[in-house]
Write a structure and sequence with these properties.
This protein is α/β, with parallel strands linked by helices. It has 3 domains: 127 residues, Fumarate Reductase Iron-sulfur Protein, Chain B, domain 2; 177 residues, 3-Layer(bba) Sandwich (FAD/NAD(P)-binding domain); 164 residues, 3-Layer(bba) Sandwich (FAD/NAD(P)-binding domain). The protein is 30% helix and 17% strand. It contains 17 helices and 20 strands. The strands form 6 sheets. It has a 5-stranded parallel β-sheet, with helices on one face. Strands 6-14-7-8-9 form a 5-stranded parallel β-sheet. Strands 10, 11, 12 and 13 form a 4-stranded antiparallel β-sheet that branches. Strand 2, helix 11 and strand 3 form a beta-alpha-beta unit. Helix 6 packs across helix 9, helix 7 crosses helix 9 and helix 10 packs parallel to helix 17. The longest helix has 20 residues. The C terminus is likely disordered. Bound molecules: flavin-adenine dinucleotide (FAD) and iron/sulfur cluster (SF4). The site of flavin-adenine dinucleotide has 39 residues, from helix 10, helix 12, helix 13, helix 16 and helix 17. Iron/sulfur cluster binds next to helix 8 and helix 9.
Length: 500
Amino acid sequence: MFPEKEKGFLVFKRELPPDEPVQERIKHFKEFHHSLPDTKAREQAYRCMNCGIPFCHYGCPLGNRIPDFNNAVKDKDWKTALKILHSTNNFPEFTGRVCPAPCEASCVLSINDEPVAIEQIEYEIAERGWKNGWIKPEPPEVRTNKKIAIIGSGPAGLAAAQQLNRAGHNVEVFERSDEPGGLLMYGIPGFKLDKNVVWRRINQLIDEGINFNCSAEVGKNIPIEKMLEYDAVLITIGSTVARTFKDMNVPGSNLKGIVTAMDFLTQSTQRLLGKYISSEEIIAKDKNVVVIGGGDTGSDCIGTSIRQGCKSIINLELLPKPPAQRTGDNLWPQWPMILRTSTSHQEGGERIFSVLTKEFLSDNYGNVSAIKIIEIEWFTDENGTRKFRERPGTEKILPCELVILAMGFIAPEADAFVENLGIELVSTRFGKAIKTNEKYMTSKNGVFSAGDARRGQSLVVWAISEGRESARCIDEWLMGKSYLPSKNLFGYHSEKEKTY
Ligand SMILES: Cc1cc2nc3c(=O)[nH]c(=O)nc-3n(C[C@H](O)[C@H](O)[C@H](O)COP(=O)(O)OP(=O)(O)OC[C@H]3O[C@@H](n4cnc5c(N)ncnc54)[C@H](O)[C@@H]3O)c2cc1C
Ligand code: SF4
């Protein structure tokens, strides 16, 4: 059927499975993205040109061996494809669902055609792995007597835990939330990433021998001093301090009905999971909703508000509307800085770019009733700095009963670690992050950090990548030498070629 691998792109066009239609999917919170049949998935893998220099490796922060797994899929060898994928990525079922796929932006085929559907192929491989029972617990054959504490169980903590456990160490994870998974559990909504998909993987980690302690906040109900009992500590607490208007002196920013995206999204998932919600209910039903912030988080708030039955929804963004196509200074294989329309944007709402929030108005009972905005124009000053100025006479008042702030995250909640462990923070383009050396070690010997806590708000794929890299550094520091794989331009290659 597929005689010459390198010719597939001339025969087949890029094809993804159709998502459930908007009018149907907004009635529920379940995943609406589906799988391709075997033959179709193989056709898509056959489009890979098997480039001599695969630029998709440059794009993927994990260094996934994309042409290799495409080749195996094309040859219907799904099991080998899974082994190749797992050799660089602990959790391909997560990235196959939520990764923005920088690999596809740097696929050579995308220079003058549509890129290979790499993320979809990754999803197909991972799901076949689970369906066929090929993904099983892989506990280590030999245990070292080293004990490692991991603080925070997002994708960075989980990836590091699995790597370190497979290297034989005794790994204990501390998570302040009532469920492990970090933003995979409470953050990314279930319609993008089903929570059973997260539990399915966490159960594998538990069966491999990793010990999870939930509702265990280090620095609060778990004393920091307890961490000193471990041979090494990894801090993967994410970057969870949200940017708000409170420090920006915007009048009315304390009104009721102005909430952070994480409070809104966490409650929504808790409600769906049948959890008890102790804080005041935040729900978009029958409300005019304004979401401030045009990124991934804002988009998740739109999809969630629509599913909750909001009356109307408007998404505000300070930055100008990005171009539809790459511009001359943003060429392949760089990440394209273009307008993105997420599946949630397809579901409804209006997007307004280049606007500044001037004031929140009250209904006289302390609740937000409207937001005053003004158009802005962006310009570059004589020193080359990008700035904006207001356009007089363009103020508008938008009625709203719920305002959701999705303006990004500025720092990890690391005060207790700074005060009690003496670790240092560093300034980043977002705000602050935990300072480490190139081996992921903080300013305190034996204490490491990875993921959003270390690099600032980022992506799941980067968190997994940093979790894996930091695990190798910890293993090397503890044992003098590590057999865990390390990343290079051509992906991960361990000295023992093990499929960690
Ligand atoms: C709403 C939203 C949607 C997103 N969507 C996407 C997407 O579609 N694709 C994508 O690639 N990325 C997405 N991201 C970004 C991505 O989720 C993060 O980059 C990633 O989860 C970071 O992983 P992490 O392990 O570093 O931290 P986190 O996932 O933030 O996990 C940190 C964990 O540490 C715990 N913790 C914190 N302090 C303590 C303490 N003192 N003791 C114990 N535990 C503690 C927290 O409870 C949390 O569970 C999204 C982010 C948000 C907010
Ligand atoms: S993890 Fe993301 S960047 Fe890497 S191959 Fe998968 S979709 Fe592409």
